[in-house]
């Protein structure tokens, strides 16, 4: 079984890389220079180099062109397409000269209207003058054709038959049937069928013998809807038999079948699948099985070593495609979000280039023994020349390896290589598919190769000397910092405040450690009953001393608590799962949020609680100070029994208050565990008193005359009741900080990517079984794209696993209790007129489980209540009814979260401005607000503010005092008089 550190320290890994890298081969320099010059002189009449030269991605025009290319062809209606074209036209200055036919063609539809677009014009005014000259249909058709022309440079054919017909005679090919990862079983069957058909067609047309015969590249996430580490058992049971059948067809035709690279969190799973093929008896004797290895992963060396060992152990020769990697920015973001120790990928391009050469050298050593056939995939002139020089130095004949390039890229460079080294074999990686399916692929290729640090982008820039491009990567790596200076390591994402530590579930060892720690946790102790009046008395008595405690000491208690939560994470995760029935990933996320709350409020308290001198005239001082209000009441819900409980309590405590906390009656023991951690961190016992109980206990605490403020998270009805009780009380007017629910909507237009919408809808609507106040309740989909999107969402929802939340493979656990289930069932039993259930998950609804559902409504107004569970409501809207839709959403009175999915920035702005909510999420999911980055809270019926986890939260827990002193009362301003001029 493959094992290697998932995200080792960049500094240590860099040192190891520099020590193991091959020394530069000076004899490679002339060839490298010739290849680079050829690439600079021209990439052929149609090539990505021309596009990047004409429209660099560092410019507004390049980004606008990328956005248009990514979205335009999937837009089904003309009005939305026109709006998208107009917006992208308005985003750039298309008058500048774009050399080369490809860049001119790709930008022609935009540039042709440049003279008609005035500076500063809005998108809405752009198409009118063009339409007067050309007519709107002509502009639209020209733009679509230009995008098809540009995209067509990356795709060999729209079908495998077309691709085979366009394939150059005598050239090696690896065909890639385009398609993003499958979201549903139907998607997976479609892609698998396409692979089978392609394999058969390629086999019939193939000539020669391996390794020179053509091949097929397979994306495993395209043939299984849950290709993820936590679904390992299901993947091995369902995907592997299908993959073996496909491999048997490839073997029958003696083809190369390569498993394409996936993201880092899927690497261990991919290698396990690959090993199953490697040991399959029916595939014995076949030498066409291949794997793509990403050099930008720090585990690349371990993967290559594992492949060499497995080849030797099984006696099978393998084909190994060495690539540099195409998901770099996504890997960086994922590691930061998950709070990992470091990144699984190199942060500097020079390190990736050096790692590629290092693994190329290892592969050549194994190739010399006849056990691996290396396939060196690169468009970098220096990498090609160095690989060839390494092969010569090691005595490896060029027939024992090949180079690979992408169709539409590197044409001029490899033409020069064929001239200089006709013995160097080349294979073209050729995407096949309809243009609508290639969009995401096209943009990924543009981003990957258009990155400022990449060879392809730099070689297109005449200002960059070729000699600098051809420097050996170890020189560039040694010269600069060990890691990318502008890429914050996960722990340092928030500057001086440490990011909470997470776990990558795709790291088998890390997940096993987490589960073992959880399983070793002791039973949850019971929380003793406490009389509400006695609790208030204890807290009142503790308040003066705690309020007088220096803020630095109060903050230190929170920081020690955060450290304790992390060091004993298994105990807290076990508690959340045992009492709150939350899945493992939800429980880990909640623990991290609690840690972040403690650290964030500690920092904020030290920032604002230090007395501040205010502007004053001569002879006077004015000092503003903040302190606690008294006894603060914290009423927390069951759906975030640790994070919200601790967030409320930590804020109130660090502000100088004593706290009486009433957790939800469903989850009191988690609260007790949190209190224990605070006390072990140094909190005086009576500064925080927990009072378990139901509504009657809460009412008594709210009504108590000593209550100086209330922090509440729960239902809108309960918040109203608390507000009325406060108003009825005699005595001081106290603050209420209320965060309640919402009829949270996501508005999706026809430019949105269906796969992204599907992923974000599933997370927003069904994660935590829909039991989040931020969860998506109402999906508003543009009619013109609704059928396809809703079919994909329903298909993906069907693949969710309902079950024991302690099982890492579970996506949806049970509801909190029978009452919660009954409330939802009552709504479903009496749906509004015209509403219909269009999807129900097939899982049994035993106990407190409720199967995810999708219910289509006729209009926004039909959703009259917050349905707190895994029920997604859907309404359709047409482009002409956009204004009416936004008025309806803005008129619900709720204002918590809002999602927008669109490739039109102007549309997203309009939606956000029309619907008053506290948190707007554009082109992402709507849940999981991050402390300090996404302060959370609503308005209207969704809460009072200020936002939790934001800079305005703590002051609401405090009172302000200004002390004014006449410093000249004794006869003058001594300080001023003592100063010289």
Q: What's the tally of helices?
A: 36
How large is the radius of gyration? 31 Å
* Overall pLDDT: 91
Class derived from helix and strand content: alpha/beta
- The proportion of residues in beta strands is 5-15%
The residue fraction in helices comes out at 40-55%
User: pLDDT below 50 for ≥5 consecutive residues: which ranges?
Assistant: 97-132
Total count of strands? 25
Assign an overall shape: globular
Report the sheet with the most strands, covering strand number, pairing sense and barrel closure.
Answer: 8 strands, parallel, barrel
* Order of the strands making up the biggest sheet: 1-2-3-4-5-6-7-8
Q: What can you see in these coordinates?
A:
The strands form five sheets. The chain has an eight-stranded parallel β-barrel, surrounded by five helices. Residues 97-132 have low confidence and may be disordered. The protein is globular, with a radius of gyration of 31 Å. The chain contains 36 helices and 25 strands. It is α/β, with parallel strands linked by helices and 981 residues long. Helix 3 packs across helix 6, helix 5 crosses helix 8 (136-152) and helix 10 runs parallel beside helix 11 (232-252).
Question: Can you lay out the helices and strands and say which pair or pack?
Answer:
Elements: H1 10-20, H2 29-41, H3 48-54, H4 60-71, H5 78-90, H6 101-111, H7 127-134, H8 136-152, H9 160-166, E1 172-177, H10 185-205, E2 215-218, H11 232-252, E3 256-259, H12 267-278, E4 289-294, H13 300-314, E5 318-323, H14 328-338, H15 349-368, E6 372-377, H16 381-394, E7 402-406, H17 411-420, E8 426-432, H18 435-450, H19 455-459, H20 466-469, H21 473-479, H22 508-519, H23 532-548, H24 551-567, H25 569-580, H26 584-608, E9 612-614, E10 620-628, E11 631-635, H27 643-654, E12 658-662, H28 668-680, E13 688-690, H29 695-703, E14 707-713, H30 716-728, E15 736-739, E16 745-748, H31 754-766, E17 778-782, H32 783-798, H33 818-829, E18 836-840, E19 853-856, E20 871-877, H34 882-890, E21 894-895, E22 897-901, H35 905-914, E23 919-922, E24 939-940, E25 958-966, H36 974-978
Parallel strand pairs: 1-2, 1-8, 2-3, 3-4, 4-5, 5-6, 6-7, 7-8, 11-12, 11-14, 12-13, 14-15, 16-17, 16-22, 17-20, 19-20, 22-23
Antiparallel strand pairs: 9-10, 10-25, 18-19, 21-24
Helix pairs in contact: 1-15, 2-16, 2-17, 3-6, 4-5, 4-18, 5-8, 6-8, 7-8, 10-11, 11-12, 13-15, 15-16, 15-21, 22-25, 24-26, 25-26, 25-28, 26-27, 31-32
């Amino acid at each position: 079984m493959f094992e290697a550190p998932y995200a080792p320290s960049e500094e240590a890994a860099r040192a190891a890389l520099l020590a193991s890298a091959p020394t530069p081969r000076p004899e490679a320099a002339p060839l490298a220079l010739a290849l680079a010059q050829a690439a600079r002189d021209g990439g052929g009449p149609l090539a990505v180099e021309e596009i990047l030269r004409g429209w660099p991605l560092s410019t507004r025009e390049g980004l606008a062109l990328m956005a248009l290319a990514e979205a335009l062809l999937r837009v089904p209606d003309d009005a939305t397409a026109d709006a998208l074209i107009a917006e992208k036209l308005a985003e750039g200055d298309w008058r500048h000269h774009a050399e080369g036919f490809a860049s001119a063609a790709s930008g022609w539809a935009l540039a042709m209207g440049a003279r008609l677009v005035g500076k500063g014009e809005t998108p809405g005014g752009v198409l009118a003058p063009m339409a007067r000259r050309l007519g709107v249909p002509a502009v639209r058709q020209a733009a679509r054709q230009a995008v098809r022309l540009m995209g067509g440079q990356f795709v060999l054919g729209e079908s495998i038959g077309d691709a085979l017909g366009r394939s150059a005679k005598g050239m090696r090919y690896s065909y890639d049937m385009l398609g993003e990862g499958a979201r549903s079983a139907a998607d997976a069957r479609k892609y698998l069928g396409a692979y089978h058909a392609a394999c058969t067609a390629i086999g019939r047309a193939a000539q020669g013998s391996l390794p020179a015969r053509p091949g097929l590249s397979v994306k495993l996430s395209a043939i299984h809807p849950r290709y993820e580490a936590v679904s390992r058992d299901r993947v091995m049971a369902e995907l592997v038999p299908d993959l073996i059948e496909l491999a048997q067809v490839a073997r029958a035709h003696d083809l190369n079948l390569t498993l394409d690279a996936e993201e880092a969190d899927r690497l261990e799973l991919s290698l396990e699948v690959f090993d199953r093929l490697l040991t399959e008896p029916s595939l014995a004797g076949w030498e066409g099985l291949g794997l793509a290895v990403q050099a930008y992963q720090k585990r690349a060396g371990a993967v290559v070593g594992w492949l060499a060992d497995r080849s030797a152990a099984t006696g099978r020769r393998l084909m190994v495609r060495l690539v540099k990697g195409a998901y770099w920015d996504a890997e960086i973001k994922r590691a930061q979000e998950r709070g990992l120790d470091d990144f699984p990928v190199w942060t500097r391009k020079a390190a990736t280039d050096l790692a590629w050469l290092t693994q190329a050298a290892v592969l050549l050593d194994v190739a010399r023994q006849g056990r691996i056939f290396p396939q060196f995939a690169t468009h970098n002139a220096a990498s090609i020349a160095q690989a060839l020089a390494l092969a010569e130095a090691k005595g490896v004949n060029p027939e024992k390896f090949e180079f690979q390039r992408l169709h539409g890229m590197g044409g001029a460079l490899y033409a020069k290589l064929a001239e200089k080294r006709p013995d160097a074999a080349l294979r073209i990686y050729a995407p096949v598919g309809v243009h609508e399916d290639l969009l995401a692929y096209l943009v990924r290729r543009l981003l990957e190769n258009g990155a400022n640090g990449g060879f392809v982008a730099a070689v297109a820039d005449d200002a960059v000397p070729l000699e600098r491009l051809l420097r050996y990567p170890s020189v560039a790596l040694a010269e600069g910092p060990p890691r990318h200076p502008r890429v914050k390591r996960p722990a340092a994402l928030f500057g001086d405040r440490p990011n909470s530590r997470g776990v990558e579930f795709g790291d088998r060892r890390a997940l096993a450690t987490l589960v073992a720690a959880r399983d070793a946790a002791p039973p949850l102790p019971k929380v003793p009953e406490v009389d509400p009046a006695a609790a208030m008395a204890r807290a009142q008595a503790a308040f003066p001393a705690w309020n007088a405690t220096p803020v630095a000491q109060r903050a230190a208690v929170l920081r020690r608590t955060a450290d304790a939560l992390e060091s004993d994470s298994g105990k807290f995760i076990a508690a959340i799962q045992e009492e709150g029935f939350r899945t493992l990933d939800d429980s880990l996320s909640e623990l991290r949020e609690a840690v972040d709350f403690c650290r964030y409020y500690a920092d904020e308290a030290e920032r604002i609680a230090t007395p501040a001198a205010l502007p004053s005239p001569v002879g006077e001082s004015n000092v503003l100070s903040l302190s606690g209000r008294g006894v603060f009441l914290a009423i927390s819900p069951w759906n975030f029994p640790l994070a919200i409980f601790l967030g409320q309590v930590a804020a109130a405590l660090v502000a100088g208050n004593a706290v009486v906390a009433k957790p939800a009656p469903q989850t009191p023991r988690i609260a007790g565990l949190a209190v224990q951690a605070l006390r072990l961190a140094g909190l005086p016992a009576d500064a925080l008193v927990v009072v378990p109980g139901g509504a009657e206990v809460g009412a008594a605490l709210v009504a108590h005359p000593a209550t100086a403020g209330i922090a509440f998270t729960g239902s809108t009805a309960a918040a109203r009741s608390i507000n009325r009780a406060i108003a009825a009380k005699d005595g001081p007017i106290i603050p209420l900080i209320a965060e309640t629910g919402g009829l949270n909507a996501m508005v999706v237009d026809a430019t949105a990517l269906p796969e992204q919408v599907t992923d974000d809808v599933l997370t927003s609507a069904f994660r935590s079984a829909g039991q989040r106040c931020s969860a998506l309740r109402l999906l508003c989909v543009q009619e013109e794209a609704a059928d396809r999107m809703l079919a994909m969402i329903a298909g993906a929802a069907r693949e969710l696993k309902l079950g024991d939340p302690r099982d890492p493979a579970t996506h949806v656990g049970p509801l909190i209790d029978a009452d919660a289930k009954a409330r939802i069932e009552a709504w479903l039993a009496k749906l509004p007129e015209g509403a219909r259930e269009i999807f129900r998950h097939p899982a049994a609804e035993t106990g407190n489980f409720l199967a995810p559902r999708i219910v289509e409504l006729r209009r926004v107004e039909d959703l009259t209540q917050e349905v707190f569970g895994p029920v997604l409501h859907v309404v359709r809207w047409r482009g002409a009814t956009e204004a009416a839709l936004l008025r309806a959403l803005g008129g619900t009175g709720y204002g918590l979260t809002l999602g927008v999915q669109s490739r039109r920035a102007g549309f997203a702005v309009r939606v956000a401005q029309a619907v008053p909510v506290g948190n707007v999420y554009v082109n992402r999911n709507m849940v999981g607000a991050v402390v300090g980055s996404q302060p959370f809270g609503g308005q209207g019926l969704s809460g009072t503010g200020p936002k939790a986890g934001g800079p305005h939260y703590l002051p609401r827990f405090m009172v302000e005092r200004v002390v004014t002193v006449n410093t000249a009362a004794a006869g003058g301003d001594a300080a001023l008089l003592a100063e010289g001029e």
